[in-house]
UniProtKB/TrEMBL annotation:
This is Phosducin domain-containing protein. The lineage of its organism: Eukaryota, Fungi, Dikarya, Basidiomycota, Agaricomycotina. It comes from Rhodonia placenta. Residues 23-37 have a biased composition (Pro residues). SUPFAM superfamilies: Thioredoxin-like (SSF52833). It holds the Pfam family Phosducin. InterPro entries: Phosducin-like_chap/apop_reg, Phosducin_thioredoxin-like_dom, Thioredoxin-like_sf. Residues 1-11 have a biased composition (Acidic residues). GO terms for biological process: protein folding. Gene3D superfamilies: Glutaredoxin. GO terms for cellular component: cytoplasm.
Length: 207
């Protein structure tokens, strides 16, 4: 009678005890089940609206409180991300003007009315002109203060051929592909300060 050495039988155990069969290889341990996801992992992919529904369906007040706190954190994170849409001055060249200014001003952010568009401020400057250098400092501050508006910079005569220095610094404000306002020689008559938000760039109703 043939003996199957791999079978787990009392007879085979007796043969192994007397050295007739080699020791049986130990059975590999069963893999551990994957760890349960943390609450953050379980809720991480849910939208604020889904989190609200989940909290309303919770079986106890403690779960509802935890889910609601997480929902508020998610809303705060999303708002922070929205505010970081731009937030700085983007240098551009003449060949990028149409894409980065005109076309960019036609883009409507998700959640905004279809015709809202994007406010784009194009800053024309020239290094070495004091009022232009001061204006550049102001523009950097405004870009950080109003990250929903796109600020771009370009050397004046690279944008408009033979642009005289007397018109520097110059601002051109766009929305929906249209020029809303132009300001030339800003600061030439007197020293300028940042006093508030540019309505033309932030409010379509100010056209």
């Amino acid at each position: 009678m043939a003996v199957n050495a791999d079978e787990d039988t009392e007879f085979n155990d007796a043969l192994r005890k007397h050295g007739i069969l080699p020791p049986r290889e130990p059975t590999p341990p069963s893999p551990s089940p994957p760890p349960s996801p943390t609450l953050e992992e379980a809720l991480g992919d849910l939208t604020p609206a889904e989190l609200r529904e989940l909290g309303e369906d919770a079986n106890d007040s403690e779960t509802e409180r935890v889910v609601e706190n997480y929902r508020r954190q998610r809303v705060a994170e999303l708002r922070k991300q929205e505010k970081a849409r731009f937030g700085r001055v983007y240098p551009i060249g003449r060949d990028e003007y149409t894409r980065e200014v005109t076309e960019a001003s036609k883009v409507t952010e998700e959640g905004k009315p279809e015709s809202h568009g994007t406010g784009v401020v194009c800053f024309l400057y020239k290094d070495g002109i004091p009022r232009s250098d001061r204006a550049f400092e102001h523009i950097r501050i405004l870009a950080q203060r109003h990250p929903d508006t796109k600020f771009v910079s370009i050397v004046g005569d690279k944008c408009i051929q033979n642009l005289p220095d007397t018109r520097i610094p110059m601002f051109i404000v766009y929305r929906n592909g249209e020029v809303l306002n132009q300001v030339v020689a800003w600061g030439a008559d007197r020293e300028r300060r940042i006093e508030g938000r540019s309505k033309a760039a932030s409010d379509p109703s100010s056209r």
